[in-house]
Amino acid sequence: MSVRISRAHWEALLAALEDARRQRHLLTYRALIERLSLPAPAMQTLTAALEHLAALDARSDRPLRSALVISQGASRLPRTGFFECVARLGRFDGAPDGVAAASWHASEVARVFEFVYPAEA
Question: Superkingdom, according to UniProt (predicted)?
Fold first, then answer.
């Protein structure tokens, strides 16, 4: 099954991530789903959109904006699937739930905060 996001939701996602970047804070998956009012299957739609955005950012050699989205659990890290995705993109090599993942994520978030993304992306 293919999951698609509407243009309006995509643009709202990019705007939400840009707001978070400028304010230097992270968003939870749940907060982002609620903010975007994503229809069911909301988590699958958001995940697919974040993975697509990660691929676009990686292709353009930019920090991965999708790193700004985290689980609301104690880890304060993205879900395991995020690390699997960035490993496929050649950006991360390690266990998706260990110290290496936390360290890589912290440095990627810092890179995102410092980067100015072009308006059209």
Answer: Bacteria
